[in-house]
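INFO  loader      accepted 1 record
INFO  loader      residues=377
INFO  predictor   begin
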Amino acid sequence: MARRAAFVYDELLTHHRLSDSHPLNAVRLKHTYELLESYGAFESPNSTLVGPRKATEKELLGFHSSDYLDAVRRLGDGDTSVDASAFNFGPGDNPAYEGMYEAGLWSTGASMVAAEMLISGEVDVAFSISGGLHHAMPGYAYGFCVFNDPVVAINRLLAEGMRVAYVDVDCHHGDGVQLAYYDTDAVLTVSIHESGAFLFPGTGHTQETGAGRGIGYAVNVPLYPYTSDDVYHWAFDETVPRLIEAFRPDVLVTQLGIDSHVRDPITHLAVTVQGFSRTVRELARLAPAKWLALGGGGYDLQAVARAWTAAYGVMIGKEFPDEIPGSYREKHGVSTLSDTDVPSAGGQIPGETKAFAESSVSAVHRLVYPAHGISLA
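INFO  predictor   done
INFO  writer      dumping tokens
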């Protein structure tokens, strides 16, 4: 039976702009919606298009400090008396921009709507594409992220007594979410990402396995630059499924960043849209009755639209035709959902990527599996 699915979107989620040159462009959300609409995704009887709401201050204060919320509000209103650098705002990754506080309320609230629909039983899976801002820290902005909607949404699920497994496939380590639950066994956090030795935020090493009650509940699978589909899938299959099956979550939360794409302009993995889709299909297989899907990174605009469209197809049990419908194809100049012209890494990279992945997988087996009673025999 096809899952009942909700897609959380409104064009107001696309109206903010961090800066004229910033790689995070909210128009990618609009492109995704338009591509899904061209495929008729919202006409399916098991698919519901819903709008967001604003997150409340109380919800945000479950993770963020009151001083930080006040600073974000004032900076977004243009108050130059605030020391922006004290909250990690400034030129580069985290510019303070007009309407920043409101934009953060809407994107976080969109993820809360998704979580609430799962809690109420209205749907089985909900996709909040404006969410997945996994780097934001309790008292400062980080890695393009102002408010950490994954943590705020997970906290809501925890308040209902649910066990939560969080799987993050963004190219960057899910550091803010790991930090939030590093010392608890109520949440299993799994991040598969480009190694922090080569990419921001420089964390997510295999030795980061949790603290106190949380030892063994933080899992990291770092990968070498230019890791492509085959090695990526091997590393995923050798770690993620058995952990999810052993943990037995009530809800699966997935951060579906697609900056792992081979043509992403600021990262170095080499995953294709079809490779990403295969990962999402495996996550769908592993998901219990409730699945909260969030967006995340992704800076090639059409790769984002194609990948998240394919992902929502998995969620509603539909495999969209590879040929993109004419209306969208003519407007954006993309012809297929899958990648058909994939650049080759060349040289010795394939051997290096597999050896690096084998080392990461071996470390997870050695450092994490025993905490979950998983035997390799």
